[in-house]
Amino acid sequence: MTHCRGMARRARVVIVGAGFGGLGAARALARSEAEITVIDRRNYHLFQPLLYQVATAALSPADIAWPIRSLLRGQSNARVVMDRVCGLDRAGRFVLTEDGRRFPYDCLVLATGARHAYFGRDAEWAPVAPGLKKIDAATEIRQRVLLAFERAENGEDAAERASLLTSVIVGAGPTGVELAGAIAELARDALARDFRRIDPRTARILLVEAGSRVLPAFDERLSVKAQAALERLGVEVRLGVPVAECTAEGVQIGAEQISARTIVWAAGVMASSAGNWLGVETDRAGRVRVAPDLSVPGMMASTPSATPSSSPPATAGRCPELRRRQGRWAGMPGD
Ligand SMILES: Cc1cc2nc3c(=O)[nH]c(=O)nc-3n(C[C@H](O)[C@H](O)[C@H](O)COP(=O)(O)OP(=O)(O)OC[C@H]3O[C@@H](n4cnc5c(N)ncnc54)[C@H](O)[C@@H]3O)c2cc1C
C-alpha cells in the first residue's frame, strides 16, 4: 500500500515492514535517487512458508530468518531501522515509532502483513492455540508437540496419554494442511522408534475446518487430492464443523468435546493496523481498499509518472512472489 506526493527533489521513501512486500519495494528502488528508510519491528526477514518446518523440528529458526541489514547491505540508498511503528502524523508526514522517533516521508509504503484472528475470542484462545506466524510461535508449537510425547511416555493414566498424543489443527487452509501433514510425518516417521512405552504412530492428528473442504481457496480437485494425502498419513479431517471452544484441555467442535494438549490455530487472519494509521475505512478483516497501482484512494499520491507498461499485480493473495511483485510495483520510481 503506497501513499506518496509528487515532488521535484530527492524523495524520502519510508517503507514499513521488511517482509516480502517491503523488501521488494526497497530493492525496486535500488537504482533510484530516493533516500529509503526501511523500518521493521524485527531485525530479520522471516520466510514464513517454512515456519511449519520449524514447528515440527525439521528446520532450525536460523534457517528461515535473515538479517534485514545484510539483505540490504549492498544497497547504499537504503537505511535499516529496527523499531515498531505505532502511527502516522499524516498532516506533518511523519512515521511515528514506539521509541518516540519521527521519520519524515514524501512517499510511504506500508507492508506490515497480517496477524491471527480468533473470531473475537483472541484473549481466551490465543494462549491455548498459538498461530503460526512468528518464529516464537513456531518454537512454542515445536516445544508443545515434542514435550507432549515425552509426557505421554512418562504418564500412567491412559486418558491423559491419549490427550497428550492428540493434536488439533484449526483451519484447513494451506498452513493448517501443511502443519497437519508435518505433525503426522513427525509422529509416524521421525519419532516412531524413539520411545519405549508409547507408540508415536498412534498419535491422533485432527484437522478441523468449518467449511466444506480443505484448501477452500484452491481448485476443488486439489482439495480432494490434499485430503486423500492427509488421510493416507493418518490425519483425521473434520469438515463443516466450526470450533465452538478452545481451552488448555482441548476443543469443542459442534457437540463433540475433543481432549487434546496441542492445539494450533490456522483459521483466520486480520490485516495489521495500517488502516487505522491511515485513518481510512477498512473491511472486517482490517484490509484497506487500494487502487490498482496500490495507492490509497483519497490520499495524496504520486503514482509513477513514468507509467509502467504492464498492469500492476493484484492486491490480494497469499503468495510471497505476489507480495514481492507488489512490493516491486510499489517501489517503481516516478520522476
Ligand atoms: C505458516 C505460513 C505458511 C505459508 N506458506 C505459504 C506458501 O507455501 N506459499 C505461499 O505462497 N505463501 C505462503 N504463506 C504466505 C506468505 O508468507 C505471505 O503471503 C507473505 O509473508 C506476506 O508478505 P508481506 O510482506 O505482506 O508480510 P510479512 O511477510 O508478514 O511482513 C510484514 C513485516 O512487517 C513487519 N511489521 C509488522 N508490523 C509492524 C510495525 N508495527 N512496525 C514495524 N514493522 C512491522 C513485520 O515484522 C514483518 O517483517 C505462508 C504464511 C504462513 C504464516
Please tell me about this protein's structure.
- The protein has 335 residues and is an alpha/beta fold.
- The chain has two domains: 160 residues, FAD/NAD(P)-binding domain, CATH 3.50.50.60; 144 residues, 3-Layer(bba) Sandwich (FAD/NAD(P)-binding domain), CATH 3.50.50.60.
- The chain is built from ten helices and 19 strands.
- Helix 1 runs parallel beside helix 10 and helix 5 runs antiparallel to helix 6.
- The longest helix is centred in the middle third of the chain and has 20 residues.
- The chain is elongated and about 70 Å long.
Q: Quaternary arrangement of the chains shown? A: single chain
- The low-pLDDT segments are 301-319
**Which CATH class of the largest domain applies here?**
Alpha Beta
> Which secondary-structure class do the elements indicate?
alpha/beta
Largest sheet: 5 strands, mixed
Distance between the termini: 19 Å
Shape-level CATH architecture of the largest domain: 3-Layer(bba) Sandwich
Radius of gyration computed on alpha carbons: 22 Å
CATH topology of the largest domain: FAD/NAD(P)-binding domain
Average pLDDT for all residues: 89
- H/E series, N to C? EEHEEHEHEEEEEEHHHEHEHEEEEEEHH
What spatial form do the alpha-carbon principal axes imply? Answer: elongated
Bound molecules: flavin-adenine dinucleotide
